[in-house]
From TrEMBL:
<protein>
    <submittedName>
        <fullName>Uncharacterized protein</fullName>
    </submittedName>
</protein>
<dbReference type="Pfam" id="PF13181">
    <property type="entry name" value="TPR_8"/>
</dbReference>
<dbReference type="Pfam" id="PF13424">
    <property type="entry name" value="TPR_12"/>
</dbReference>
<dbReference type="InterPro" id="IPR019734">
    <property type="entry name" value="TPR_rpt"/>
</dbReference>
<dbReference type="InterPro" id="IPR011990">
    <property type="entry name" value="TPR-like_helical_dom_sf"/>
</dbReference>
């Protein structure tokens, strides 16, 4: 983490990979293996090495599901990152599947009005937008707007951005003229 704070991501990734190699030999440390793998995947995603990130994120999801159960919030974060990776690789259907799983987990583990739950819903809207499934994109974006409205004045900027994105989606929806 020290190397991450210094923006030495390659060094951080290298050290985490060495740590992962050690943890893989210790079956009782499966949860640590999952956490380290998730961190490597996130850093690879952050540094633009998207296709390299996916196996680490997938492995992390499996390890953490085995350790903490399929509805643990940490698993939700990993699925959210997997969705981002697939979206970056122009695979919006796979992204939508990952974001839907992330949203389900986050809603259960953190509640639907938690900022990270709202983000997973926002990401789901983006994936449907990328697929040109505007009705679904609008539906999830409306959920984002509604969730930020429940935060009150503390989420003024987030709410304004959510409204802006909703209006953009509505302009893209060719069926909107019939409403």
């Amino acid at each position: 983490m020290q190397y991450e704070t210094m923006n030495e991501f390659e060094t951080a990734i290298s050290l985490l990979k060495r740590t992962l190699a050690l943890l893989e030999k210790l079956p009782q440390e499966q949860h640590s293996e999952g956490s380290v793998s998730a961190r490597i995947g996130w850093l690879l995603l952050l540094t633009g090495k998207v296709s390299q990130a996916i196996p680490y994120l997938e492995g992390a999801a499996e390890r953490l599901k085995d350790s903490f159960g399929p509805k643990h919030f940490g698993v939700g974060y990993i699925y959210n990152n997997l969705g981002a990776a697939y979206l970056e690789l122009d695979r919006p259907q796979s992204a939508a599947q990952m974001f839907a799983v992330a949203k389900d987990i986050m809603d259960i583990a953190l509640g639907p009005h938690h900022a990270d739950s709202i983000e997973s819903c926002q990401n789901l809207s983006k994936a449907y937008d990328a697929m040109k499934s505007y009705a679904l994109a609008i539906q999830f974006q409306q959920q984002v707007v509604d969730a930020w409205e429940n935060h009150g004045s503390s989420a003024h900027d987030e709410l304004r951005e959510a409204h802006r994105l909703l209006e953009e989606l509505k302009k893209k929806n060719p069926w909107d003229i019939f409403k």
